[in-house]
């Protein structure tokens, strides 16, 4: 309750209201892990539709049957990093082919650039060449930008909607100038458009404005779905002009979740809700609906702007064309300044940030009000009225109230701040009216506003028009919210059941009380730390609880060093980046080269380690596996360590068979090697799965900060931390293990905010859910859950052993899962068992092991909290049915199904199924559905 009200947080561009029908869809899908594409084909299809709709909106040069090239992300920060990485890799490949050096790449952009560009530059070692601003001109000057371009420029980044004042940069002018420079020099410097805010505005308000793929040098565009795409925090998009602009080497293909899955993201596990919500908005509103919303925002912006101008106390810094916001500064700030206005407005409930402009305009301070869909004309008028009250109060106070407020307490013992506020109590009482106004808005929305409501400037009244819509383009007209809900809900029935998805480690059930907390916080953007101090405090508590769980060497009053992330993928990249930067700094200080850093790990490593290595240009030295030994051998790992090794990564809970690696043995061997060589090679523990298991089931096992070389640990809150997808944690041993240079400090949201993440905007719900679980369950509760999972694992394992048809590949000590393979797979194999189990609703993945054990194929069942003993027994029973059926079929049904068509013209799949019609007839419908959904290029 002590957090700010998201609806009154005028610092944020992020959506804070959606229709109840969309809220219902999001809650119904909150337990789906989006990365399981094969298990949730409809959700994957909805993302593809969103990508294509947005690509057409941005005028991508697509043929009628051509699919757009793009991906959904957690937000524009991840989207920008992916786009930047693609530019960097294309530039490197071209330079290598020409025999030219590939060091010192740079990006040219304006000093008004969002902080994620600075993060990309610092983390991926790209120079950011910033065009300075000047008073009255707060966007990038195209002429100056092009002057700064050289042969090492991987792209020029233009902003469609500056965070500072909402202004659109002149991308058309930039394109024309850069075309000329490319002709003169023979370079092919491209443009990226950061349309985080403006991408869902320009197509509707300024359709003639050329800023997108209509310009030949624009190769990629990012946009935030959670800003003017009208979805809660946690969704962004990046679209490429064509396939050639996204290097194939950056795309990963993984198969251990049950099918080949191409992926180009920094994160891995994440929720599905935001993707579904984005599709809801696109079909619900259509072109007409989005245009209506944006026009309404623009009109309310003008109301606010004109109201401020009438006070004759402010200069308006923002422009009419751009993102609908009003940035304004005091004409005279000698007696009082913008920060005082910002502070005093909080008394009325308003969160209006004050911030200084970047160099060379840092002497200019502005206040900024972002006009979102939920900000009505009535609220705009109320805000102007409250600003006038604040101005009147400041006029009666001594100069610089802020310094007086910080003065010593008076003779009455009350703080100066208290006395100042009490003296204005009569004014404060009047501000209760804003609560009444909000209640009226909520009531009006529930009663479905009529024509008379327009007169009182209702926000949502003009949206609802019924029409049909195309599949991959935005419809011209809106459709009723009930229709949008039903269309999407009906399609989603064809997704797999998350509770029966035994491929996934990710939590699929939480208590209803926690669900309620999550929905109540779904509209809070976590990055606004100053506006939501309690949510920030809850994250800090989680970090400290987990650090103590991992035996971090903390003093009594010492806070842990750690951060919440979207999952273990982001956590691992942050930890890896810290190791790389520490190693580089040490090598520079010693006058040694800093090329060719490496990480030593097992071949059983999760794909995010391969992503980190490829994206951050670190060699991954993998210890090969062998049959019967599917984890990293500590002896072989330490043998591979050299002076360029930034860390050795051990896994507490292999994805393949759940086994814990021997971190204690690794630590002891590495201590000896460090003594011999004088190196100080550290250890990172990837405890994504095992971090919330080992402390409760194996408390004596030494794997964590009790070992001196363990410098950082990651864990997934959305696995055995028992939270839905979208939360992870990384903990460092102490402050010295996290280089200060990697931490960013930003202020344009209204206060100094330290941040070390790859993402920026994200929801608060998962943080709150993690804290709920930690205090709800406590040590006893977590131990009970993990013991129950282990017992159900034993039930399943013993049931499979009784069939005498399987070898158990997993171990009893480790993550509670059962990995098993056929003793005899000459007639039929594990993939056939996996396919046939889908008939019973089970999603059980089959996959091959990594080198040098790739000849071994296994099935894997992950035992989560929601997998009961009864389900374990039912699964064994269904596996026995599948085995019995396979025994009656010809050898290798799967190969027969894929054979050439016969003389009767029927596909081999049809003939094979018809020969077993008596047994398979009942399953034909689901087989048809799955086949059409998963077949490459198929669209239903």
From TrEMBL:
Keywords: Calmodulin-binding, Decarboxylase, Lyase, Pyridoxal phosphate. One of its GO terms (cellular component) is cytosol. Residues 402-425, 894-921 are annotated as: Disordered. Its cofactor is pyridoxal 5'-phosphate. Its EC number is 4.1.1.15. CDD domains: DOPA_deC_like. It comes from the Eukaryota. GO terms for molecular function: calmodulin binding; glutamate decarboxylase activity; pyridoxal phosphate binding. It catalyses: L-glutamate + H(+) = 4-aminobutanoate + CO2. Residues 408-425, 900-921 have a biased composition (Basic and acidic residues). GO terms for biological process: L-glutamate catabolic process. The modification N6-(pyridoxal phosphate)lysine is found at residue 719. InterPro entries: Glutamate_decarboxylase (IPR010107), PyrdxlP-dep_de-COase (IPR002129), PyrdxlP-dep_Trfase (IPR015424), PyrdxlP-dep_Trfase_major (IPR015421). Coiled coil: none annotated. It holds the Pfam family Pyridoxal_deC. PANTHER family: GLUTAMATE DECARBOXYLASE (PTHR43321), GLUTAMATE DECARBOXYLASE 1 (PTHR43321:SF34). Belongs to the group II decarboxylase family. This is Glutamate decarboxylase.
């Amino acid at each position: 309750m002590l957090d700010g009200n998201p609806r009154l947080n005028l610092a944020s561009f992020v959506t804070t209201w959606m229709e109840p029908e969309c809220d219902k869809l999001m809650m119904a899908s909150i337990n789906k892990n989006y990365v399981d594409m094969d298990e949730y084909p409809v959700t994957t299809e909805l993302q593809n539709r969103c990508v294509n709709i947005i690509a057409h909106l941005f005028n991508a040069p697509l043929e009628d049957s051509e699919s757009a090239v793009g991906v959904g992300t957690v937000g524009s920060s991840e989207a920008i990093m992916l786009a930047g990485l693609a530019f960097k890799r294309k530039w490197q490949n071209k330079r290598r082919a020409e025999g030219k050096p590939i060091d010192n790449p740079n990006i040219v952009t304006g000093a008004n650039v969002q902080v994620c560009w600075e993060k990309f530059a610092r983390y991926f070692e790209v120079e950011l060449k910033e065009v300075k601003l000047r008073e009255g001109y707060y966007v990038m000057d195209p002429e100056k930008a092009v002057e700064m371009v050289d042969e090492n420029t991987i792209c020029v980044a233009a902003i469609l909607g500056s965070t500072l004042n909402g202004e659109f940069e002149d991308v058309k002018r930039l394109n024309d100038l850069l075309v000329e420079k490319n002709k003169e020099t023979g370079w092919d410097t491209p443009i990226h458009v950061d349309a985080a805010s403006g991408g869902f505005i320009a197509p509707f308000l300024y359709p003639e404005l050329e800023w997108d793929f209509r310009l030949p040098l624009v190769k990629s565009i990012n946009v935030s779905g959670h800003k003017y795409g009208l979805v809660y925090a946690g969704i962004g998009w990046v679209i490429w002009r064509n396939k050639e602009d996204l290097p194939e080497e950056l795309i990963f293909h993984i198969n251990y979740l049950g099918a080949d899955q191409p992926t180009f993201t920094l994160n891995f596990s994440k929720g599905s809700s935001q993707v579904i919500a984005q599709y809801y908005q696109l079909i619900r509103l259509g072109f007409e609906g989005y245009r209506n919303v944006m026009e309404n925002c623009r009109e309310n912006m003008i109301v606010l702007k004109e109201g401020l101008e009438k006070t004759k106390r402010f200069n308006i810094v923002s422009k009419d064309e751009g993102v609908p916001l009003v940035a304004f500064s005091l004409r005279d700030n000698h007696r009082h300044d913008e920060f005082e206005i910002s502070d005093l407005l909080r008394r009325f409930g308003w969160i209006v940030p004050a911030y200084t402009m970047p160099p060379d305009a840092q002497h200019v301070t502005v206040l900024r009000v972002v006009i979102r869909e939920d900000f009505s004309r009535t609220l705009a008028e109320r805000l102007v009225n409250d600003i006038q009250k604040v101005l009147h109060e400041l006029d009666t106070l001594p100069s610089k109230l802020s310094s007086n407020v910080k003065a010593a307490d008076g003779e009455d013992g009350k703080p100066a701040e208290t006395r100042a506020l009490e003296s204005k109590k009569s004014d404060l009482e009047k501000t209760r009216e804003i609560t009444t106004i909000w209640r009226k808005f909520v009531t009006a929305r529930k009663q479905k506003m009529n024509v008379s409501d327009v007169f009182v400037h209702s926000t949502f009244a003009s949206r609802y028009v019924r029409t049909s819509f195309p599949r991959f383009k935005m419809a011209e007209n809106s459709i009723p919210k009930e229709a949008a809900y039903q269309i999407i809900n009906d399609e989603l029935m064809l997704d797999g059941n998350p509770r029966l998805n035994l491929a996934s480690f990710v939590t699929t059930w939480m208590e209803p009380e926690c669900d309620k907390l999550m929905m109540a916080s779904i509209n809070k953007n976590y990055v606004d730390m100053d506006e939501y101090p309690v949510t920030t405090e809850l994250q800090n508590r989680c970090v400290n609880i987990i650090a103590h769980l991992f035996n971090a060497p903390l003093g009594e009053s010492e806070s842990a060093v750690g951060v919440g992330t979207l999952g273990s993928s982001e956590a691992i990249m942050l930890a890896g980046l810290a190791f790389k930067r520490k190693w580089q700094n040490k090598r520079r200080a010693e006058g040694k080269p800093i090329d060719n850093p490496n990480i030593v790990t097992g071949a059983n490593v999760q794909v995010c380690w391969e992503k980190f290595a490829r994206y951050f240009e670190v060699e991954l030295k993998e210890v090969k596996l062998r049959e019967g030994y599917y984890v990293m051998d500590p002896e072989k790992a330490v043998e591979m360590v050299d002076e360029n090794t930034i860390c050795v990564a051990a896994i507490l809970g292999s994805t393949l068979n759940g086994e814990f690696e021997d971190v204690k043995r690794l630590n002891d061997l590495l201590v000896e090697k460090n003594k011999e060589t004088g190196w100080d090679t550290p250890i990172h523990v990837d405890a994504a799965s095992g971090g919330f298991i080992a402390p409760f089931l194996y408390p004596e096992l030494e794997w964590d900060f009790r070992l001196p070389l363990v410098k950082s640990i990651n864990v997934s809150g959305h696995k055995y931390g028992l939270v839905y997808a979208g939360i992870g944690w990384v903990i460092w041993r102490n402050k010295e293990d996290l280089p200060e240079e990697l931490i960013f400090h930003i202020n344009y949201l209204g206060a100094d905010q330290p941040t070390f993440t790859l993402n920026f905007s994200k929801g608060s719900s998962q943080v709150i859910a993690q804290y709920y679980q930690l205090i709800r369950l406590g040590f006893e509760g977590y131990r009970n859950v993990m013991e129950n999972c282990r017992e159900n694992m034993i039930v399943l394992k013993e049931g499979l052993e009784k069939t005498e048809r399987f070898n158990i590949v997993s171990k009893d000590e480790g993550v509670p899962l059962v990995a098993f393979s056929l003793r005899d797979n000459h007639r039929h194999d594990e993939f056939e068992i996996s396919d046939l189990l889908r008939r019973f609703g089970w999603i059980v993945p089959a996959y091959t092991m990594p080198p040098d054990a790739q000849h071994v194929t296994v099935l894997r069942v992950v035992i989560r909290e929601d997998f009961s003993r009864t389900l374990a027994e039912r699964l064994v029973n269904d596996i026995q049915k599948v085995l019995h059926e396979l025994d009656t079929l010809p050898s290798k049904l799967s190969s027969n199904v894929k054979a050439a068509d016969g003389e009767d013209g029927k596909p081999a799949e049809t003939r094979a199924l018809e020969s077993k019609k008596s047994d398979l007839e009942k399953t034909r419908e689901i087989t048809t559905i799955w086949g059409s959904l998963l077949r490459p290029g198929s669209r239903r």
